[in-house]
Amino acid sequence: MSEWTTAGLWLAVIASGIYHGVSPGMGWPLAVSAGLFAGRAGDLFRALGLLAMGHFAAMIGILLPFGAMLALIVWERQIRIAAGLIVIAAGIYLLFNRRHPRVLARIPPAQLALWSFAAATAHGAGLMLVPIYLGLCQAADLDAGHQAAAALVTGNLITATAVSVVHTAAMIVSGGVIAIAVYRWLGPKFISQSWFNLDIVWAVSLILVGGIGIASIEYAR
């Protein structure tokens, strides 16, 4: 894999994190609410930390199984195609079914980490990272003839963790900046007056990422 390709994939990890962070559906309005309700900025930052924990758990929970599967070098191409099709299917489903899962409304507001995990999972946030992650773990770049399967799995799992950390950091920084701005200067009316619905954009982006992931397989060979 060329250095330019690797840099592009890591930029995609960061960009998707910023995209998730900006989206109100990933929870930054809840952090604003926590800060305003308690009247302390510390509660806002605590809420952001819990949201980050839940989001990271959702990302790593999706990526780790794919990291283990990549040990099967002979099936690497099929795994990447299947992952791309899953992401596309998730995008099509969300495009026609834009109702938010009822389970999110049943999670107590105090359990922000659990809510963040459920929201990221339900909206397919982790799935969006899968094609990017698989590109970073291309088996063609590994000397399979001289590496044990355990070493291969370890490398892929480390990459999965790194992708999840970088993505979550970008997500919480971007969402946190908006939350702080709303809490200190803009006020809660900004959310209702200035924000727009990202549901359709989210669904289309899943379809695009899945399609790009599949199209990139032949390019990388």
Structure description:
This protein is an all-alpha fold. The protein has one domain. About 80% of the residues lie in helices and about 0% in strands. The chain has 10 helices and no strands. Helix 3 packs across helix 6, helix 3 runs antiparallel to helix 8 and helix 7 runs parallel beside helix 10. The mean pLDDT is about 75. Keywords: Membrane, Transmembrane, Transmembrane helix.
Describe the secondary structure blueprint for this structure.
Elements: H1 3-22, H2 28-38, H3 41-69, H4 76-96, H5 102-105, H6 112-122, H7 125-136, H8 149-186, H9 189-194, H10 199-220
Helix pairs in contact: 1-7, 1-8, 2-3, 2-8, 3-6, 3-7, 3-8, 4-7, 4-10, 7-10
As a percent range, the share of strand residues is: under 5%
Which overall shape is indicated by the principal axes computed on the Cα atoms? globular
Q: What is the chain-wise order of helices and strands?
A: HHHHHHHHHH
Largest sheet: none
- Strand tally is 0
By DSSP (H or I, 4+ residues per run), the number of helices equals 10
Low-confidence stretches: none
Q: What Rg, in angstroms, do the CA atoms define?
A: 18 Å
Which structural class matches the secondary elements? mainly alpha
- End-to-end C-alpha gap: 9 Å
**Number of self-contained structural domains:** 1
Considering DSSP H and I runs of 4 or more, what fraction of the residues is helical?
over 70%
- Summed over residues and divided by their number, the pLDDT gives a mean of 77
